[in-house]
Amino acid sequence: MKLDNIPNLKHIDANNFFLLAGPCAIEGEEMALRIAEKIVEITDKLQIPYVFKGSFKKANRSRIDSFTGIGDEKALKILRKVSETFHIPTITDIHEISDAAMAAEYVDILQIPAFLVRQTDLVVAAANTGKVVNLKKGQFMSPESMKHAVTKVKDCKNEQVMITDRGTMFGYQDMIVDFRGIPTMREYAPVVLDVTHSLQQPNQTSGVTGGRPDMIETIARAGVVNNVDGLFIETHFDPANAKSDGANMLDIQYLEKLLSHLVAIRKTINNF
Questions:
Q1: Alpha carbons 272 and 261: distance in angstroms, whole number
Q2: 3-270 is classed in which CATH architecture?
C-alpha cells in the first residue's frame, strides 16, 4: 500500500510515521470538529501525515447499557464533515457485512476490529468496496497469522491494506506488545501500532475497561524505534468523561509534546 493512495493525506514526503488519531467514538459534531482541528494544527506543524479516527458505532461492549453511538448515519455524516472541513482522510471501524458499503460512502479507510479480523465475509466486504482496509491484529493471533487476513483483502483485487497491532492478551486483564511482530508483519503490509488500545486492561469486574495511559509514551517510543509505519492514538479533551475507552485515551493537551518527541526519534532513526 502506498500512502499517496489515501485521499487528502498531507505531508507524505516528510519521511515521518503517519498518524491515525481521534476519539474512540463519535459523541457529537462539536467534539469531533474540535478534536480534529487541534490534531490538524499539531500534525501540520510537525509535518505528520494525519487520518482522523472515530467509530461511528461501538458494537463490542462489556455491558448492555454501555454507550454504542449517536446513530449510524448521524455519526457517519459527522465523519464526512470532518473530512470536508479540514481536507483530511477519515477512518472508522465496521462490525457487520452491511456496514461496509454504508461506511464506504462516508470515509476513506475501513477498519476491521481485532475481535473480527478472522471473519472472512466481513473482511471481503470491506475489501470489495475498494477502500483502504485496516486490519487490526486479534489479541489472540500471532503476527505470522495476519498474513492470511492480508491475503483475503488482496485476493479481492484490493492492494490497499495495512495491519494494526493492538497488543496481545497476557492473562485476563493486560495486553503486551511483542515488538518482534512489527518486522514480521511489515513483510505483508504497512504496520501501525495502536498505542492506546495496547494499554487497555479489559475484563474488569465493573464491566468498564481500564487502562494505563501513563505508559503511552513508553509504548509509542518503542514503536517508532522499531520502524512502525504509523501510530494509532485515541485522544479526547476530557478522557475521564469520554463515552468509550476513556481509561486508556490520551488527554489531548499532551499530544503535541508526545508527537514532538516521537518525530525527533524518527529523525534520528532515519539517519541510520
A1: 18
A2: Alpha-Beta Barrel (3.20)
